[in-house]
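batch job 7 of whatever, protein = Holliday junction branch migration complex subunit RuvA
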Amino acid sequence: MIEFIKGYVDNVTPEYIVIDHRGMGYQIHTPNPFSYKKNNSEEIIVYTYQHVREDLLALYGFPSREEKALFMKLLNVTGIGPKGALAILASGNPSQVIEAIENENDTFLVKFPGVGKKTARQIILDLKGKLGEVAALYSPDLFTHEDIEQKYTTNQALNEAVEALKVLGYAEREIKKVLPALQEESLTTDLYIKKALQKLLK
């Protein structure tokens, strides 16, 4: 098992980032790839989970051990795969997710892509009362990535955000509903994604 990878961000796509570790490029799926920026001069650490299936070997990465721990908890739920767990974490607010589980708020949970009423109830059944240790590890700024340089123009950033939302499983009709509000602002791709997710989860 690869616990973490330390290296430079070589590439960022709507679905994954590529970390250059000593000349080897690791493709790592993350909840919000655009929270990272391409940088060949600053090393970062990505905490990884290796997912193995008969036809697939994939790495999933997170900025902290705490976020990785919550991802692994979600994977233990029947009906939740890596893609579904990433979509839940991409909301950027783990406290809301944990609160929804503890309060048996399945109405909130079904707002995530691929989570129906049955899966929401399963999440609550499997995880209620079992997230205390994970929740205690979170800091308020866990999902906040400050000091992100706006490398792309507004339109490019917004287009990339739309692509990232599609990768997470949101339908085009859902994305179109929140686009007007997003187009009023000039943000980085990462912030567009976070703002869109806030609106999609209301």
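notes: Residues 154-200 form one domain.
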